[in-house]
Amino acid sequence: MRAERASKPRLDGKIALITGVGGGMGVAAARRFAAEGARVVGCDLDEDGAARTEELVRSEGGDITVFGGVDLGDAAVARDWVDAAVATYDGIDVLYNNASTQRFAPLDELSIEDWDFTMRNELDLVYYTVRAAWPHLKAYGGGSIINVGSIAALRGVEFMPQNAHSTAKGGVISLTLQLVVEGGPHGIRANVISPGMTETPNTAPLLADPPERMRRVVLDRIPLGRHGQPEDVVNAAVFLASDESSWISGTNIVIDGGASVLG
Following DSSP, what letter does each residue of 43-90 receive, concatenated? Predict the structure, then answer.
């Protein structure tokens, strides 16, 4: 009987740039991509978080370099990081735009400063990193861009006011569609992952003791009966980064346990 040949890791040899790896979903992404054979270059504004992630992934045998103190909302800083990241392993196959920071308040209470902050840190930083990576992706023969959206871009959200967040993530989805058209001739694919309620360091306290309204209008209406985990999102990202999705561009994968179909 012939022994089965061991399969290669799904991202074997790929060079993946991942933003926002200092905490939450970014840590899970860095660990999983490295475990799947990718050489990871990460960044985060939080220098301590960036260092912790780098140490963790290396302790697990992963190949990773993380830059701390990187403010991707500054176009020049984003360009410098992308250039340095591409130079680290001499290439780029994946750009995973995970980093995101937002502020919430009702429409008539949200300040202009908070609106601008959210646009800068949820939409502008995606554009800046993509713009910086674009010539590299073209030069290296294409690659996969993975942008993180949100179900807040697809429907109103009852349990908290998310007007700026929804708008920014809607912009991310629209930008991605244009990247599909402009990138296709260069072998560049672009897709979106839109999570629903997912447990992160920011949401964990809320999920541990959810307000009654949040439970009633969100958690109790998830058909699969649970909120998401970072790994649920990262699983989709691994697929979109891999050659398994080589003919997929322009999708928006909604990861919310089926909640959004209820309207």
Answer: EES-HHHHHHHHHHHHHTT-EEEEEES--TTSHHHHHHHHHHHHHHHT
Query: Residue 214: phi, psi to the nearest 5?
Result: -65, -40
Percent of the chain whose pLDDT exceeds 70? 97
pLDDT in tens, 162-178: 899 999 999 999 999 99
Check: CB of residue 160 under 8 Å from CB of residue 211: no
* Tokens found for residue 39: 């050489």
- Cβ–Cβ < 8 Å for 147, 175: yes
Beta-carbon contacts of 261 under 8 Å, excluding residues fewer than 6 positions away, are 223
C-alpha span between 131 and 230 (Å, rounded): 27
Q: Which helix (H) or strand (E) holds 238?
A: helix 230-241
Q: What's residue 163's pLDDT?
A: 92
241 CB-contact burial (10 Å; exposed 0-12 / middle 13-18 / buried 19+):
buried
13 Ramachandran zone, left/alpha/beta (phi>0; psi -120 to 50) = left
pLDDT confidence of residue 261? 86
Residue-wise pLDDT tens digits, 186-218:
999 999 999 988 888 777 777 777 777 777 778
Say if residue 5's pLDDT is above 70. Answer: no
- Domain ranges across the chain: 15-197+204-255
pTM of the model: 0.94
Q: Return the bridge partners of 45, or none.
A: none
Fold classification of 15-197+204-255 is Rossmann fold (3.40.50)
Amino acid identity, position 106: P
